[in-house]
Write a structure and sequence with these properties.
This is RNA polymerase sigma factor. By secondary structure, the chain is an all-alpha fold. 71% of the residues lie in helices and 0% in strands.
């Protein structure tokens, strides 16, 4: 598909955008873009399009795009000199991908909502590197290789930072607060 985009086929680029917009929005929201997530993703797609000439043939597009999304999110957050609140992240993540089926038992739904809020609050307390590795690996469901590519870190660094981040999360989360 990248070759078709490079060849100037606009429908191929539209296909690429459609295929990756959901995960890009989740990434921007999870990394702190809050209500600016759509703008961040739009800007990231523009930058990705402009940089397609530097994209390595045979490389995975998703990690490459998500590294652009992460950088654009970081730039947006810094430029605005503000932090997204926990409520803003929760609303953005919930809007991007439903977590609890509508048919769920209300008691189960309440418990899941509380657990998710506790997890997001704990994530806020992690260092940026630890928050990034947990977000990419688990919230965005990227494998270890993709996480390493997206973050520009060696796989060993991903493993060690993820291990440290998970240990810290276990200490921060109340008993039974960790997702099952």
């Amino acid at each position: 598909m990248i070759a078709r985009v490079r060849a100037g086929q606009p429908e191929a680029y539209a296909e690429l955008v459609r295929a990756h917009t959901g995960i890009a929005l989740r990434a921007a929201a999870a990394l702190g873009a809050g209500p600016d997530a759509e703008d961040v993703v739009q800007q990231a797609f523009v930058k990705a399009y402009c940089a397609l000439g530097r994209f390595r043939d045979g490389a995975a597009f998703r990690p490459w795009l998500l590294s652009i999304v992460a950088n654009e999110t970081r730039n947006t957050v810094r430029a605005a000199a503000r932090r997204t609140t926990l409520a803003g992240r929760e609303a953005a993540l919930v809007g991007a991908e439903p977590v609890i089926p509508e048919s769920a038992d209300p008691a189960v739904a309440t418990l899941e909502t509380e657990r998710r809020a506790a997890l997001l609050a704990a994530l806020e307390k992690l260092t940026e590197e630890h928050r990034l590795v947990v977000t990419y690996r688990y919230l965005l469901e990227m494998d270890e290789r993709e996480t390493a590519e997206a973050l520009g870190w060696p796989r060993g660094t991903v493993k060690s930072r993820l291990n440290r981040a998970l240990r810290r999360l276990r200490r921060l989360l109340p008993e039974g607060g960790a997702p099952a």
